[in-house]
Amino acid sequence: MLTIYKRELSAYFKSLTGFVYLAVFYALSGLAMLLFLVYYQAVASQPYSYSSLPDFSMVFQYLFFILVLLVPILTMRLMSEDKRQKTDQALLTAPIRLFSLVAGKFLAAYTIFVLGMASTFLQALVVSSFSSDFDWLSTSGNFVAILLLGGAVIAMGLFLSSLTESQVIAAVVTYAAVLVCILLDAVAAFCPEWLATILNAISLQKYFNQFTLGTFQLTGVLFYLSFMGVFLFLTVKVLEKRRWS
């Protein structure tokens, strides 16, 4: 797994995908931070004071949409590129467990994602240094939520990338799948109660909103971990079928 991880991580930067992703992520997260500061400065009834900064959760609401926009770029090449270049056969016939192969690719993409999120942690540190009542408990819950959500989207994108040799198709399908998953709770409002219960139970945004509202629930953590596990398992099954076909 370590060999696959190093190979994939190196590939991100050799192809410039990693640099482009991080540059765009840093730019957009910086913009989110600027909007956070400007908005609350505009609505303040007195001269702006860092000591009265509001809930930092607003930044994570922006990051939710940034994640949805950028993460498919990370996952689109993970499996499809090997399939297109016919190097997947060498990997599938190598003496390596398929789960190790999948886990290595997943962790490489997740590492790039975490490197992007590190900038937000630094922003939170700077803001907290100017605020006497900065809510680190709520902010920590938001960090957990965004890291779990990122892992869930990466796992799903990895699976969808394993189904095609086209990076473009992999990215587009991942965008569509993520959009469906975050709109389930909205659709549930127009469905019968039994169906609404099911849709709410598998909505990515519902559990994320619970974290951003300051509610840390173990069910949300278990949901995201289970979501990752299911799609990593499905990816292994796709490769297993290809190995023996």
Textual characterization of the structure:
The longest helix is centred in the middle third of the chain and has 33 residues, at 98-130. The protein is built from eleven helices and no strands. The two termini are 23 Å apart. It is 80% helix and 0% strand. The chain has one domain (2-30, 54-244). The chain is mostly helical. The protein has helices at residues 2-14, 17-43, 57-75, 80-84, 88-93, 98-130, 136-161, 167-188, 193-201, 204-212, 218-244. Helix 3 runs antiparallel to helix 8 (167-188) and helix 7 crosses helix 8.
Topology:
Blueprint: H1 2-14, H2 17-43, H3 57-75, H4 80-84, H5 88-93, H6 98-130, H7 136-161, H8 167-188, H9 193-201, H10 204-212, H11 218-244
